[in-house]
Amino acid sequence: MNIKKVVAAALILSSMTAVSASAAEFNDIKGHWAEDVINELANKDIIHGVSDTEFNPDGTVTRAEFLKMALGTVGIADVPYRSGECLDVTASDWYGGCVQSALDKGLIPENMIGNYAAKITDGKAIYSGFFDGDKPIKREEMAYMVYMLYQYSCDEEESYNILTPIDLQFDDVSQISQWALDGVRYAYTNGLISGMDDDTFRPQQTATRAQAASIISRLLDKTE
Q1: Strand pairing partners for 120?
Q2: What angle do CA 22, 66, 121 make, to 5 degrees?
Q3: Dihedral-angle region of residue 194 (phi above 0 means left; psi in -120 to 50 means alpha; beta otherwise)
Q4: Over the stretch 101-122, which tens digit does the pLDDT of each residue have?
Q5: Distance between CA atoms of 59 and 209, rounded to whole angstroms?
Q6: What are 137-170's pLDDT values in tens digits?
């Protein structure tokens, strides 16, 4: 097990909420499809609840929250925020350091940046546009981003374990944005995300805290 990655994930995932509670105290996950995953991650102190007794599994997750969780899961640390080089992020935004780090490593999909533009200044790339970090993340965005992080975390030898994507058979596959399709295919084929019980993927649906926990658990399993 990569202890640094687990420690980083524990610190990062707590950004979903500042309240710590043991899994046994969550009274709103009994019978939930993600109950076991939430219990496991909570017992490891990797995720926390919104209060001492609630996890709010069906609550939303923002783009910034998921980005910070995913970066921490694969051991990528924040870097100092640089004014004018971090899209629409300001110095007062708590997620400035993680967005800057992701930008520097090319880990934010261009299609998740509104009015995206890049230019080379003094030998380095400067990006402009809108990340909208407080916007709830969609399932297709979450799938694309988690695959990018998984791919980034693999060394040359581990990269041979990445499976070639299969064609998706979801009833609503046509609703997946064209830019996100390959990322969703890779994420699904490699077991980083699953579909719904009704044979849909619901790519445009806002992701939930439970779904985010499930993906982080899968990413941890892949990168430990």
Answers
A1: 125
A2: 145
A3: beta
A4: 999 999 999 999 999 998 888 8
A5: 6
A6: 999 999 999 999 999 999 877 887 899 999 999 9
CA 216 – CA 37 distance, rounded (Å): 10
Whole-angstrom distance, CA of residue 10 vs CA of residue 154: 21
141 contacts 180 by C-beta, under 8 angstroms: yes
CB atoms within 10 A of CB 174: 8
Single out the residue of 18, 54, 22, 64 nearest to residue 39, CA to CA: 22
Percent of the chain's residues with pLDDT above 90: 71
From start to end of the chain, where are the E strands?
Answer: 114-121, 124-130
Global pTM value: 0.85
Q: Alpha-carbon torsion 39, 44, 47, 48, what sign? A: positive
Tokens 């658990």 -> residue: 217
- The answer to whether the CB of 212 falls within 8 A of the CB of 55 is no
Structure tokens at 127: 């990006």
**Separation of CA 49 from chain center:** 18
**The tokens of 10 are what?**
């524990």
Provide the residue count of the chain.
224
Cα distances (Å, whole numbers) of residue 208 to 14, 17, 97, 104, 105: 15, 14, 24, 27, 26
pLDDT band at 21 (very low <50, low <70, confident <90, very high): low
The residues that bridge with 118 in the sheet, in sequence order, are 127
Q: Tell me which amino acid residue 105 is.
A: K
Model confidence at 44: pLDDT above 90:
no
